[in-house]
Design a protein that fits this description.
heterodimer; A: 500 residues; mainly alpha; globular; B: 445 residues; alpha/beta; Rossmann fold; 4 domains; six-stranded parallel beta sheet; 34% helix; NAD (chain B); potassium transport (chain B); potassium (chain B)
Chain lengths: 500, 445
């Protein structure tokens, strides 16, 4: 027996800290349950479980320092455990499809990974407190639960930056303060502030009578999942349930949610020009505008869609593009009925994602930009083999090792997407579920890239419940792996991770 | 003035030679053969010993020194000498520095190390290369009066349109003065009827525009400016700074460096330059990258021999002009004779700069022509100067032969000197002075 080289006690003890604190967000739907007179057990039980497990794990005696392996283990375990704890209220509430544990875990994992793919097809069967819990876990998952944890866990002196890098897969976390916990706290405060702003805006529209039905519950719910680019909605027809003004208001908040938060921090602190000096941001803006314009044109030539005038067409196009490109997953229309061209444009947007260092998922524009630039560079060096031309991003040269990693990651993502499609197709055929290839591909992409709605049976106003249990389990895994960007989970399955 | 020079290498010796006639100069060097040579060659006191040793410095009279020049080949030694001098005396300290990192520290950290002036060899060399690159056919360019006046030396080839013209015919530019013609090592002060022949070198002084126009006229096939193709061989510090300075002026130079790590480093720091990783003598590479079409090739490799080789190779392939960095002073003339168009010796450049700093307040700026055949100096005219308040045709008679008034700047304006131009106190005057007349001239001014 080889000696174990991972100090798993460190990871578990820190996991204890995360679980312990999970009791706090669980108290939010508990308050609503008290007000509405709903059963309290669905929330009291997980609070007890998570507190007991958290405090218990914290008793592990071990040294404090955490290194790369411990960080990977901690990241993988945290997302998994929070996902499992998050499913407890759904099971205990026992309503509708969510009563089945596999469905509850799917829903919870879809929540914490900010995917937004839902099992629910009977929204009326669930209490407000359960629906709110879906929104809360998405908000927690938005910026990454570990970024939150770092800002709370003061004992994490060494290894905090490592954790943040491991979770967000950025090569170097730009520290805003000397202590990583300070940086994490600043970012979370900003995140909370933006969410509050979105809530205020939506609620004001509701109170003013511009957006009927936008009460405080809906304002909070949609603000949280817009800024988190997550996409759950307590409404069966998503944001389509609200007036155009509310739909328009959510567009900039989804856009901001998928913008790098360090950049937002500087912007909020008076450095107005900073985003425009950032090449990735310009790329992001150009893609969003370009895709929206293209989509508007595609919808204008489609007589079935362009029925409500230019404003409606532009709104339909912009909202769905921003929603899918930022990996949010809201919808204001059942885009299943759109033309194949329009649907394929939306499908292509699923592979993009917003900026690195934001709440977005998918491959992310930083990687695409570097892939494009590196390719252009490689074309140049084909003609001039001796030329040394670093790939530059906003003027800074990008390390060759980073470029290699990014190529590898992008390729790996596409391979996993292809394999996932295969699993969905084969398993659906096994259970006799009728599914087109495009539907299978879109469902695989929508879960792996944490988008949410797909096309066809898993469309924006439908649910993932028709898929077989095996497919749903596979999708749960895809959402999990996709959110923490493959590597932290993948390394756990290598021999060298556990042994020296 | 008591001047203490530490380091009697080429730079120290050249400064000592310049200062000895009018100052009390003491020279310290570790090598006795050097100090001996100086004792016999010049009117200076020498001390043999380590310049960072306090005993040696005291023996050399550091307490009474008014100026300390640290000019050894070692940056750290020079800094220590200046720091020691600053602690022991009130002397003005000048340190010769090779690497720009110390210059950056010194500039940013409020003139640290007890150094009053820092003279950076690599940067100065790169600047003088940069100045030559902009002007076709120029072999030396120096700025005066804060850049409002330029002195330039050109080599006249057979293709030049002004060959066989008189100076009067060739001087078609308003604010330009023909200061000298150098023919077979002899300096001729030209008058209007002097005929220019192929192989001459001419020294002109004037406004930067007129010097540029003159340069363009010499080589009408090639427009001067940023569309010139420049290839730099060697990513040394000099090569780096040349590329950087040219990039700032809008050129897109190519820089060829052999070492992969250094090439990558350069590529990251110089976004506007194209870095290539290759051996400078790889013929296939040179042909593939069309070095033959380069307007200027700069050789800044680590050895003189390699620089010569690359220059000749580039020349043979068809490059228009070659500039080589040459460390060994004896090679300068030799290399120019075998076909390097411009040979630049960093030590000469730095000695020039230090001499400039040591000049009395009146003389502000000096450029040496052909090492020592003549000087171009800039002075600020005060009321008791022979030049003040008189037309030039009168005052020139009171100056020795071999003096030419090249340009005048009044406040920020350029004034073209003509016979009837009256020089006023406060004017800056740029003069060309033959070697023989230097002492007499500076005294009269």
């Amino acid at each position: 027996m080889h000696r174990l080289r991972v100090n798993w006690r460190v990871s578990l003890r820190l996991l204890g800290g995360v679980l312990k604190w999970l009791a706090v967000p669980l108290a939010i739907p508990l308050v609503v349950a008290v007000i509405d007179g709903d059963p309290l057990v669905p929330f009291l039980a997980p609070i007890a479980v998570t507190l007991a497990a958290g405090v218990g794990l914290e008793q592990l005696e071990t040294e404090k320092n955490m290194y790369t392996r411990e960080a990977y283990l901690m990241v993988s375990l945290s997302w998994l455990c929070v996902g499992l704890v998050g499913a407890i209220p759904f099971v205990l509430a026992g309503n509708g499809l969510l009563a089945a544990p596999s469905n509850a875990i799917f829903e919870s994992m879809s929540g914490i990974t900010t995917t937004g793919a839902t099992i629910i097809d009977d929204f009326g069967a669930h209490s407000r407190s359960i629906l709110l819990w879906r929104q809360v876990i998405q908000w927690l998952g938005g910026l990454g639960i570990l970024v939150l944890a770092i800002s709370i866990l003061s004992q994490l002196s060494v290894g905090g930056a490592q954790l943040m890098e491991t979770e967000s897969q950025t090569q170097d976390v730009q520290k805003l303060t000397p202590k990583i916990a300070g940086t994490a706290r600043l970012i979370w405060r900003l995140y909370a502030g933006i969410t509050l702003l979105a809530t205020g805006g939506l609620f004001a529209l509701g109170v003013a009578g511009i957006a009927p039905g936008m009460d405080l519950f809906n304002a909070v719910s949609h603000a949280m999942t817009a800024v988190a680019t997550a996409g759950f909605s307590p409404q069966p027809d998503s944001v389509g349930a609200f007036a155009p003004a509310a739909q328009w208001l959510l567009v900039p908040f989804m856009f901001i949610g998928a913008t790098n938060f360090i950049l937002l921090y500087f912007f909020v602190n008076g450095d107005w020009g900073r985003p425009l000096r950032n090449e990735e941001f310009r790329f992001y803006l150009a893609l969003v505008v370009g895709a929206s314009v293209l989509m508007t044109l595609l919808l204008l030539v489609d007589a079935d869609v362009a029925t409500g005038g230019l404003e409606e067409t532009v709104r339909l196009a912009t909202f769905q593009i921003v929603s899918l490109l930022t990996t949010t997953g809201f919808a204001t229309v059942d885009f299943n009925t759109w033309s194949p061209a329009a649907k394929h444009l939306l499908f292509a947007c699923m592979f993009l994602g917003g900026m690195a260092g934001s709440t977005t998922c998918s491959i992310k524009l930083l990687r695409w930009l570097i892939v494009l630039k590196a390719f252009r560079r490689d074309l140049f060096t084909t003609i001039h083999p001796e030329a040394i031309t670093p790939v530059r991003l906003s003027g800074t040269a990008v390390d060759e090792a980073t470029i290699r990693d990014i190529y590898a990651y992008t390729l790996l993502s596409l391979v996993i997407f292809a394999l996932a499609t295969l699993v969905v197709v084969i398993d659906s055929a096994r259970v006799g579920l009728e599914l087109s290839e495009f539907e299978a591909m879109s469902a695989a992409a929508a879960t792996f890239f944490n988008i949410g709605p797909a096309f066809g049976i898993a469309g924006p106003f439908n649910s993932y419940s028709p898929f077989s249990t095996v497919t749903k389990a596979a999708m749960t895994l895809l959402m999990y792996v996709g959110r923490i960007e493959i590597i932290p989970v993948a390394v756990l399955f290598t021999r060298s991770f556990w042994q020296s | 003035m008591n001047v203490l020079i530490v380091g009697a290498g080429q730079v120290g010796e050249s400064i000592a030679a310049d200062l000895a006639p009018s100052h009390d100069v003491t020279v310290v060097d570790q090598r006795s053969d050097r100090t001996e040579e100086l004792t016999y060659g010049y009117d200076v006191l020498t001390v043999t010993g380590d310049g960072t040793d306090i005993d040696v410095l005291e023996e050399a009279g550091i307490e009474s020194a008014e100026m300390v020049i640290a000019s050894t080949d070692d940056d750290e030694t020079n800094i220590v000498v200046c720091s020691t001098a600053a602690a022991l005396s009130e002397a003005l300290t000048i340190a010769r520095i090779k690497h720009t990192k110390y210059l950056e520290t010194w500039e940013r950290a409020d003139r640290v190390f007890g150094v009053d002036y820092m003279v950076c060899t690599n940067l100065l060399t790169a600047r003088s290369i940069g100045r030559v690159v902009g002007l076709p056919a120029a072999i030396d360019v120096d700025p005066f009066a804060g850049g409002r006046v330029q002195m330039a030396e050109f080599e006249i080839s057979e293709q030049c349109p002004i060959v066989d013209q008189t100076v009067q015919e060739a001087d078609r530019y308003d604010s330009l003065t023909f200061a000298a013609v150098i023919r077979d090592d002899e300096v001729i002060v030209p008058d209007g009827s002097t005929v220019i022949t192929a192989g001459d070198r001419v020294v002109v002084i004037g406004s930067p525009e007129s010097v540029h126009n003159f340069a363009d006229g010499l080589d009408p096939d090639h427009g001067a400016g940023a569309d010139e193709e420049v290839a730099i061989f060697g990513g040394s510090e000099i090569g780096y700074h040349v590329a950087r300075l040219l990039s700032e002026r809008g050129f897109g130079p190519r820089l060829i460096e052999q070492d992969p790590d250094r090439a990558r480093e350069l590529a990251e720091e110089l976004p506007a330059a194209q870095i290539m990783e290759s051996d400078a003598t790889d013929m296939e590479f040179l042909e593939r990258e069309h070095i033959d079409e380069a307007d200027v090739v700069v050789a800044a490799l680590e050895s003189d021999e390699k620089n010569l080789l690359v220059s000749l190779l580039a020349r043979r392939l068809g490059a228009d002009r070659t500039i080589a960095v040459i460390d060994t002073p004896a090679y300068v003339d030799l290399f120019e004779a075998v076909g390097v168009d411009v040979a630049i010796n960093p030590r000469v450049v730095v000695a020039e700069e230090i001499t400039r700093l040591t000049q009395s307040d009146k003389t502000e700026n000096v450029a040496l022509i052909e090492s020592d055949k003549a000087e171009v100096i800039e002075i600020e005219v005060d009321a008791d100067s022979v030049l003040a308040g008189r037309p030039i045709q009168e005052s020139i008679a009171d100056l020795p032969a071999g003096v030419v008034i090249g340009a005048i700047t009044r406040k920020t304006e350029f004034v073209t000197p003509r016979g009837d131009t009256e020089i006023q106190p406060g004017d800056h005057v740029v003069l060309f002075v033959g070697a023989a007349a230097i002492e007499e001239t500076t005294a009269a001014l």
